[in-house]
Amino acid sequence: MNRSILSRKEFIRNSAWALAGATLIPGMLFADEREEHAGLNSLNVNNTGKSFTLKNVRLETGFDYEDGDVVATKTGIFSVEIANGKIKKVSTGQPHADAIDVKGMLMLPSFRDMHIHLDKTFYGDKWQAVRRRTGGVKGMIALEQEILPEMLKNSTYKAEKLIELLQSKGTSFARSHVNIEPTSKLDSLRHLQKALDNKKKGFGAELVAFPQHGVFYTNTAPYLKEAAQAGVDFIGGVDPFTVDGAIEKTMDFTIQLALDHHKGIDIHLHETGESGLKTVEYLISKVNENPVLKGKTYLSHCFVLGKLDQAKQEEMAEKLGAAQIGINSTIPFGGLIMPIPMLMKHQVKVMTGNDSIVDHWNTFGTGSVLYKANMAAQLYGHNTEFGLSRMLGLATAGPLPLDDKGQQQWPKAGDAADFVLVDASCSAEAVSRLSPVKSLIYQGTVVF
Ligand SMILES: [Zn+2]
Known about the structure:
The structure is a single chain. The protein has helices spanning 8-15, 31-34, 136-152, 155-168, 187-198, 221-227, 240-244, 247-260, 274-289, 310-322, 340-345, 369-379, 385-396, 427-433, and strands spanning 52-66, 69-83, 86-91, 100-101, 106-109, 111-116, 171-179, 204-210, 234-238, 264-269, 297-301, 325-328, 350-351, 419-422, 437-442, 445-446. The protein is of the alpha/beta class. The strands form three sheets. It has an eight-stranded parallel beta sheet with strand order 6-7-8-9-10-11-12-13. Strands 3-2-1-4 form a four-stranded mixed beta sheet, with no helix packed on it. Bound molecules: zinc ion. The site of zinc ion (ZN) has 6 residues, from loops.
């Protein structure tokens, strides 16, 4: 069996929590069944060069207004042709005879988990609750130094299981942080790269070299330099002041490494006090000095933004927006409310992810970013048709079928064939009701 595609057994196991009672779309078969149905060549998932057509696909076409308010989403039924991993044609015409009938399912851009640790998880292994924490982040570093050698032994297998969980929730792409420190050296990275290679037909990823144990608190700098040449896309970081005891020294190292190797930056920042604010301000000034970093620099969590008064929040949101620094926010965040709507108002790119699914940091991850969009809609009161439809952008990390004016902007011929088929009448319903994801297509490959 092709390991990159979910088998029926794996899918049912992965999705059993949230998709109890999920039914299959007729004509869409799991990889293990497909091998027994050689006649269905139109769905040859092992070759993205093959083409197929879906019929009775529901697409959003516009908004219905009443007194200036969006009260409903208009949809239509279309045929969608897929070839060479791309959407070739969207039409209302009569499809050819062997088109696959998806029976009015809603097609949405596939989901993207933009902050997760695929390399470091208990998922697929035995259950363990989080232990009582002592010694703050440095206590957690000491704990990791103790448990990582054991966790690394089957980290490729667990990453593959975790990817299957994400796929079952409609996610086809992740930005994964990967531990780089003297305990794991580059093993966590290499194990994850192997898992991603095994899954590449159904899942894409970009990687962040993550110095979880500090750049200088442990002697991680040489390993980061090595990782920068070993296939990562971003240079990461964690609380420079708390862990390394210095903001500028750590940030300068991180920024220079990113510049030298043409990488992006994505730094975990949990610090909420003065050091947190200083770190944000320092990063903004450095990105403005080095405009090549604009649009590829991110702060993950950035809890300090939730602690500022409103005027300072506005000021920081405006500066982050101008420097094109994005915020990756997990949702929810304990008792803290992040100013996500304000960030969005200032054109700050806000994305979300599961971060932990089940590990020594947290055990509440569902694997669904649609659930994160739902939580955000609840937290910020985006409960109208329009508000709910906009929150879908947190699950897709950007693309939406309709723009703010209700103009159809997705899918278009030439777009990557990365989409989900959802049992919902529109985006707003999918976000509000956490509608079941019935199928995931990644680069023209039917994952399930
Ligand atoms: Zn994280």
